[in-house]
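Here is the promised in-class demo. Please do not try to memorize the tokens; focus on the logic of going from shape to residues.
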């Protein structure tokens, strides 16, 4: 029997305890973190320059990624504004939120949002522009609920195109900071109207300095022509405008000496407002950009994380970061789980082996079918595949033809595809974007990222 080296065992035990201690977060009640949530409207992955998309420049997002973590597999559980934002604010999948599972809906009184929980526990909360919307949220006595805090929209600016809001988002953020009590922690929601429709046609080229030749790869369910590329570059121009206000907000926090203890979360509610994307249950519909920085806590910055992340993970992350218990928050049980272990791990790539899939789905996104019926779906992305169940394949996924496919926003790309179908120039584009679908769909994402070859 070999002699035991007790000094080596003691050293190993000490190192193990030290490493475990480093990965345990202990909130400081006297120095609670601030939170800045930056929510883009209808922006798809990978449309940030940090992901390598050459025709979009996003220095604000890139800064957050460089000084924090960038996520390569972040998904919204639902690809439409109201249900996606409801899921984000509650930490629960949208189909568990009753009426809030639907677009342009009623937010049930029984569900407490993250901002309401933070306000109750000593945070100063507010938002600018698009919070939880569209829909109605009221208290029991009929008063408006502040699901994302106090609205701040008085500061205006001259937008660079007619499709862009005149809201001075960064200016309103600064006013919010000026109006809070000294040393009180804050949570602010920057809800950009960009890059939601409507775009000024041609603004990406005429005002954004972009060129049609900048786009060298198209989704094969879009016609590869100048009109569609112009539409996409207009979208890119709005993404860059969204990012410009993020850049200003980061500078404001840095000048005030508050950036290091602020959790900055940058993401989007759902994919871009184009046919077959927003409102559908496909990879490109639900895959969103995400970067998070928290200089005081996140280790080994600039990491690229491959774990599957849901927007429902943000609420439990913030609740843990602020030291508020679930009971103190008044929120219902989360379906998401905290990202704190990823923040503290210092690792890149796939960090948490349990984060090996994501669930997506929908109930009713828009009216436009008989009886205002929905198009309920569920999907799972795992092991490189996307599997979808369409519970009513006899219905039109983007709304009925006689309603103009109301589930898809109007756009030059939509008009072009519908005209091509009518003229029979190419019915394949119409079928991919607006046609009926089978009850089951299965796609190999590496071989078929556009999800057109149904293996089911």
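The designed amino acids, position by position:
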């Amino acid at each position: 029997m070999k002699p035991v080296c007790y000094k080596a065992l003691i050293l190993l035990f000490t190192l193990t305890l030290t490493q475990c201690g480093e990965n345990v977060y202990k909130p400081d009640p006297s120095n609670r973190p601030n939170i800045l949530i930056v929510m883009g409207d209808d922006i798809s992955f990978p449309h940030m320059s940090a992901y390598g998309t050459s025709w979009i420049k996003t220095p604000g997002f890139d800064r957050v990624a460089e000084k924090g973590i960038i996520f390569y597999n972040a998904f919204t559980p639902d690809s439409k504004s109201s249900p996606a934002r409801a899921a984000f604010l509650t930490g629960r999948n949208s189909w568990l939120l009753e009426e809030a599972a639907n677009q342009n809906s009623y937010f049930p009184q029984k569900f407490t949002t993250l901002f309401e929980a933070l306000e109750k526990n000593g945070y100063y909360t507010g938002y600018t522009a698009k919070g939880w919307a569209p829909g109605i949220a009221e208290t029991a006595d009929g008063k408006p609920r502040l699901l994302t805090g106090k609205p701040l929209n008085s500061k205006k600016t001259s937008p660079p195109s007619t499709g862009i809001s005149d809201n001075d988002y960064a200016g309103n953020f600064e006013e919010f900071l000026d109006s809070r009590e000294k040393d009180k922690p804050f949570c602010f929601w920057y809800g950009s109207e960009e890059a939601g429709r409507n775009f000024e046609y041609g603004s990406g080229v005429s005002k954004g300095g972009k060129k049609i030749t900048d786009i060298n790869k198209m989704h094969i369910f879009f016609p590869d022509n100048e009109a569609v590329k112009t539409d996409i570059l207009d979208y890119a121009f709005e993404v860059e405008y969204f990012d410009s206000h993020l850049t200003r907000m980061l500078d404001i926090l840095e000048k005030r000496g508050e950036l290091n203890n602020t959790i900055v979360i940058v993401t989007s509610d759902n994919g871009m407002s184009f046919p077959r994307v927003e409102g559908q249950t496909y990879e490109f519909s639900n895959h969103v950009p995400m970067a998070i920085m928290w200089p005081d806590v996140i280790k080994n910055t600039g990491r690229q994380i491959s774990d599957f992340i849901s927007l429902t993970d943000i609420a439990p992350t913030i609740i843990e970061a602020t030291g508020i218990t679930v009971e103190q928050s008044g929120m219902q049980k989360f379906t998401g789980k905290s990202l704190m272990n990823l923040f503290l791990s210092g690792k890149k790539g796939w960090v948490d082996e349990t984060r090996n899939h994501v669930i997506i789905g929908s109930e009713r996104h828009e009216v436009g079918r008989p009886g205002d019926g929905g198009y309920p779906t569920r999907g799972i992305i795992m092991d490189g595949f996307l599997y979808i169940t369409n519970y009513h394949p006899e219905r039109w996924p983007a709304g009925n033809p006689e309603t103009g496919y109301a589930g898809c926003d109007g756009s030059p790309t939509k008009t072009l595809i519908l005209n091509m179908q009518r003229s029979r120039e190419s019915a394949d584009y119409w079928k991919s974007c607006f046609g009926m679908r089978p009850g089951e769909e299965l796609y190999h994402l590496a071989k078929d990222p556009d999800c057109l070859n149904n293996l089911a």
